[in-house]
Amino acid sequence: MVFDKDLNGHGTVSNDLADALAKADPNRFQQVPASEYVKGIDY
Fold first, then answer.
1. Among positive and negative, which fits the CA dihedral 4, 37, 21, 26?
2. Cys bridge to 37: 17, 20, 30, 42, which one at CB 3.0-4.6 A?
């Protein structure tokens, strides 16, 4: 799961893609830990 601060949204992507996005632009993208997933939305 990755959170996009610019769009104020989140989406499910592979762990590799989430890592790459967070490393490429840490001010925009942030990985969401499983403990913060929202039931009914994220799983």
1. positive
2. 42
pTM of the entire predicted model: 0.76
Give the pair of three-digit tokens for residue 4: 């996009």
Rounded alpha-carbon distances, angstroms, from residue 34 to 14, 26, 38, 39: 13, 19, 9, 11
3-state secondary structure of 27: coil
Please state the φ and ψ torsions of residue 9, each to the nearest 5 degrees: -145, 170
pLDDT of residue 38: 80
What confidence category does residue 36 fall into, taking pLDDT thresholds of 50, 70 and 90?
A: confident
